[in-house]
Amino acid sequence: MSESLQQLAGLRDQAVAAINRASDASSLEAARVRYLGRKSQITAILRGIAALPPPQRGPVGKVANQTRRELEQLLGERERDLAAAELEAEIAAGAVDVTLPGTPPAPVGHLHLLTRTRREIEDVFIGLGYRVLEGPEIEHDFYNFTALNHPPNHPARMLQDTFYIDPASLAAAVTLYDSEGAPLPDSSAAGDRDVLLRTHTSPMQVRGMEAQRPPLFMIVPGAVYRRDSDATHTPMFHQIEGLAVAPGISLADLKGTLLAFARAIFGADRELRIRPHYFPFTEPSVEVDVSCFACSGGGGLAGGDRCSLCKGTGWLEILGAGMVDPNVFGFVAAAGYDPAEVQGFAFGMGIERIAMLKHGVPDLRLFYDNDVRFLEQF
Q: What is the pTM of this model?
């Protein structure tokens, strides 16, 4: 065997080993340039065939070309193998488990502060044994005013002048009542002020007593409507009305109940203060204050400044309450509410006011602006 054929055999074995060892595209390209490039030894042998003795030219040229074609085929196969391996590695590295949350997880939001405050209040009273009831937002004048000791032309109605509903716009199946509670034959017999958007959730006091004989312990959360709009009032807001009726209930029970509520919402160190007031459907009536949790009821802050939350008084007004007026029981006497046998207390609070006091919100309208910068703080 001639020297050129021996050299080609050695180069072939070296090239096959180098191609098989190549672990990526760059090392495979280096092997190609080394063994098949313009300056490679195999290329030099092919170019030097003319200088060989005539008997060697044919065999050397044939073996050199065969070697070149074999190595080119091997390079192509190895290139495809490496490309497939790299693709599998990329797929494995970029695999997505569709059962996992997004990265980062998409924000799912949270309950609105008013909803959270409402549920917090509900939880307190459920723990005290109260039921949570709901009632219609479109209400009869009778339930909204008359049955709550606001007879027609009573001046207290003016304080809650509200949004009235055209009776003709209601479904024919709705039973309507006049302001004295008498059923009407149809909507044409109803007056223009016999149906309204409720001004408080108190109408459910009467509806609840009609549906259940005493004892009765209930709270009624929901939206109410009044013609007000400023930093502390909106045309629509939310109230929670409470009612407790049973034999022997007194004003002391009311104070104890509200003290438990205030401490659960505002902190265990809170104290309660009640002040005389007037509400048409309670007698006696009281305004209820809780000791300020910002200044611990002292009216001043650590630096000597006046407390901005309670305005230096040490107290925060949170709700109105009182003992149920016997006249209200008169509207549900047929359901077993004899004022000589049972007594009760009622209270009502604005959910917005509780949230404003607890979280330091200066303007009630912020709750309804839908500004994410505000809502995300809570």
A: 0.69
